[in-house]
Prior knowledge:
By secondary structure, the protein is α/β, with parallel strands linked by helices. The chain has helices at about 5-20, 20-25, 65-70, 75-90, 145-150, 175-185, 205-225, 225-235, 240-255, 275-280, 310-320, 335-340, 345-355, 375-380, 385-390, 400-415, 425-435, 455-470, 500-510, 520-530, 535-550, 555-565, and strands spanning about 30-35, 40-50, 50-55, 105, 115-120, 160-165, 190-195, 270, 285-290, 305-310, 330, 360-365, 390-395, 420, 450, 475, 490. Helices cover about 45% and strands about 15% of the residues.
Amino acid sequence: QIEAPMALAQGILAQVLEVGQTFLSQPVRARLRLTTAMGASICRSRCCTNEGDAREGVVIQQDVVETFFKMPASCKDRAFVNMQMRMAYGARGNLDPSRTIPMVARSSPFVKGLQVYMPEDQPEQTPPTQSTPLGLMGSNMDSHPNLSKLMHLPTHALSGKPVIIGTVRMGFGHHRIAYSAITWALELGAQPYLVDILATNCPEADRVAAMDKAYSKLSRISSNIGGVVDEIWTRMLLQGGINSLRFSCALAEELRPLMDGLPKDHPVIAAHPWIGQIAVACGFETVINLVIDNYPQYFVLVPGAMNLVQSPSYYSKLLNMGVPTSHLKYAGHWVSRDIAMFASKDCKERIRRCEKKMPMRLLIAIGGAGAQQKYVQQFILGMKPLLQAGRIKLLINSGDHGFMADNLTSVFEKEGIEFVLHRDQEKMNEYVVKHSLDHATEPEGDPPVTIFNFETHYEAFRATDLLIRVADVLATKPSELAFFPIPKLHLRHVGGHESFSAVRSCELGDGTVECETVPMALQHAELLAAEQSPLLLQMNHFIIDNVSAHIYEGSKVAVETALASKPKA
């Protein structure tokens, strides 16, 4: 069995198919047979190895893509997709796409008011022992008595329409997008149900996890090595043509058991295209795809769903790629409710702090893949003079990457930089309350660097949402955080598709250009940390203007679209 991420498989197969039948006649011999079934053109690839036929008789239907885009697939296209399925998904083994995994909704132990779909035979998670406002976690999480008031989270009862919000636990980005939709569903009185397809203990989830593991590993390697390796990886990630979507839809057919047990009349909001593609394959009546990034590629789309995008230019490019206008809409950025609703207020406080020459609080959020370790360490050490001078107070969310926190503490000890490390949620909650942006003075006794590290995935990505509201600037790779309403210093990308998100932010005026080198990032850090920094003041004013244009309310639009949907007759 060969396991490889989709982009890598595509890059390899593009070269394989160019070589032709001579190559294919070696240990892996593909015999391409065209057949006709139910009036549609179907291709079947039979991969023979020394151990026998691995996918004998497997037929992959690509009608959904051809119908949606009015683009017939050639024999070469179908051969390409079938070979991708072999390389990225491996042997079918004991998988049965027609089976159904019985699911049951249970109360989330983390978010009050949220229901989580889990297999009915899976043990229930321990619920919180203390009642907390909607949108907050249990007693061992967001339990600080002042946190609810500070974050302005909703407390009213839920009585509205059920909405399924689906995600895949790949890094932090897709969970953060899903969480943004959950917060707006709670605000609008809907009943949100979360489904994470990697939370199910089954062979289908294992296959997806293996693909994600390979992607994360290659991202870390390419980011840390840089140079020609990073360039090759970047080019692979920018090759998402129509066949990559055919592959995703074929994969969705195999992954149907992960969602086939859910109510088909509930609208689905997809924080990852695979969620939307699986939902369409399962026959859900309403599917809404929150299209990621700002670089148009086919595989991020969901044929048959309403595809919502974050920028007008993205909308125009997708129309040019053949997406029907009836299945495409500009919504705005995927931002959680409290950050979006209070962006203007927070920016006014940041302006006040800047004008009073207070230290700049710089939040560094390390992504879920754990990449950029070398780049981030060099960037932090380069800021040592600014840290020692008191111009920058550094907040580092190392997420659930214990090795990152350990490496950073070792570096700070060696360099003689004073720091404090918080490894529990309660300490972070106390920090958030103590460092509210509207405080007249900076709290006394803070070291130059504060590091946060957590045990759970939810705590890790949720911490960034909380810390954004007490930070002056966010330093991040241009991932989904590039769309958030806070002044941003864009670090080097991990995957070339991310660069286009930095372009969107820079054009809106709420972030810098992407800093591909450490010296470039340090130059922008100095500009932003300068007393009464013109650049920092300008970014905050632009964000206030953008708030008036509802640019950061895309997740609200997504929930409103779901609530407005009507069951099919």
